[in-house]
């Protein structure tokens, strides 16, 4: 069974993906991913494929999603601890301006490579891909040491309804 929802299949097909695609991941990668973690399946099915492109979207710019294993970064370790789960990098997004992570529960998060911002992208692969490929805003997240974060030309604080309250989801 594929992770690609029917309404997004065209994006993936144009990128060269086909249902049933599965590649063997190098041991150097599989050694870093726990066996039951969703990242292994995602990387096996999509590694090497770039889906989508950056252009005007519904609420913000759409994104390209270049599937590849992302080496652990400090910010992902911080968020793994805050979320009580393991984040594994599965793609770069927005012309390599950020990385996309999946956690042990199958939730998706992006971490910016250009400014101090982390976002909740969705509860599932389908939700995250729809948000990124259609250009729908993600939900900013604040670490305990952050008072606010700038995204989309706006300042978001803990009082902002758009901010993802991860403390209620752990």
Can you tell me about this structure?
The structure is a single chain. The protein is of the alpha+beta class and 170 residues long. It has one domain. Helix content is 23%, strand content 24%. The chain contains five helices and nine strands. A seven-stranded antiparallel sheet has the order 1-2-3-4-5-6-7. A two-stranded antiparallel sheet has the order 8-9. A hairpin with a 4-residue loop joins strand 3 and strand 4. The two termini are 28 Å apart. The mean pLDDT is 92.
Q: Total strand count, please? A: 9
Helix content: 10-25%
Report the portion of residues in β strands: 15-25%
Tell me about the largest β-sheet. Answer: 7 strands, antiparallel
Judged by helices, strands and strand pairing, the structural class is alpha+beta
Oligomer: single chain
Q: What is the succession of H and E elements?
A: HHHEEHEEEEHEEE
Indicate the topology.
Elements (H helix, E strand, L loop, with lengths): L8 H6 L12 H4 L7 H9 L3 E2 L13 E6 L3 H10 L4 E6 L4 E5 L5 E5 L5 E5 L2 H10 L4 E3 L6 E4 L2 E4 L13
Antiparallel strand pairs: 1-2, 2-3, 3-4, 4-5, 5-6, 6-7, 8-9
Structure summary:
The chain is of the alpha+beta class and 170 residues long. It has 5 helices and 9 strands; from the N terminus they run αααββαββββαβββ. The strands form 2 sheets. The chain has a 7-stranded antiparallel beta sheet with strand order 1-2-3-4-5-6-7. A two-stranded antiparallel sheet has the order 8-9.
List keywords for this structure.
170 residues; alpha+beta; seven-stranded antiparallel β-sheet; two-stranded antiparallel ribbon; 24% strand
